[in-house]
């Protein structure tokens, strides 16, 4: 099976590695130009070099995985069986990307998005095929869980095809919850980040100390968020959730 990955950044290159190191898959790693796509593959190679230096991987194994990854722009996805979009967390960009892909990819290619917060229903609206959410956790080659998110226009049989998720455990988020940005991980991060904003404000006011706060930052969710970077975290956190969480997410420290 050939998998096309759109976006060769941290998540895109990680997802590409996860598929390439799994038997039966080849990968087309794409970005807006060949240079960016090649950098994504180079990042994978650099990670392998570190593992080889530590004796945790053989050079032959690394070469075999890298040989399964082709780089380029989205045009090389014409014969892909599965497309996973891992572009920046911006609705307009994601919708435009899929609009262009539908005229490039074969009719039976499955469209998936790695979004961590945006509506699957809205992303897929107006396309010639449904879209499914396939949210990999970061770092994708290491984290074991994948969220499979159905939009209101995602058929049940598409959701059941979890075999695409390369033997990773999958948790399915139902369409109704998806409309409230109901992703399990980002929901927890929204709560944690909101509480951290309040805590930092208290620490700045001298109500509590930073030494009390620091151990709370060592949770898996926060470490993952730190690894991913603040820009995608901010974009995801500010997606509205009705009520309490939305109001907390907009608190500004003084």
Q: Round the mean pLDDT to the nearest integer and report it.
A: 78
Rg is: 19 Å
Helix content: 40-55%
**Count of runs of 4 or more consecutive helical residues:** 12
What does the main sheet amount to? 8 strands, mixed
Question: What gap, in angstroms, lies between the N and C termini?
Answer: 53 Å
Got a strand count?
8
Instruction: Kindly report the spatial arrangement of strands forming the biggest sheet.
Output: 3-2-1-4-5-6-7-8
Series of H and E elements = EHEHHEEHEHEEHEHHHHHH
Structural class: alpha/beta
Query: What's the shape?
Result: globular
Low-confidence stretches: 174-182, 240-254
Please, could you describe this protein's structure?
The chain is of the alpha/beta class and 254 residues long. The protein is built from twelve helices and eight strands. Helix 5 links the parallel strand 5 and strand 6. Helix 1 crosses helix 2. The longest helix has 21 residues. The protein is globular.
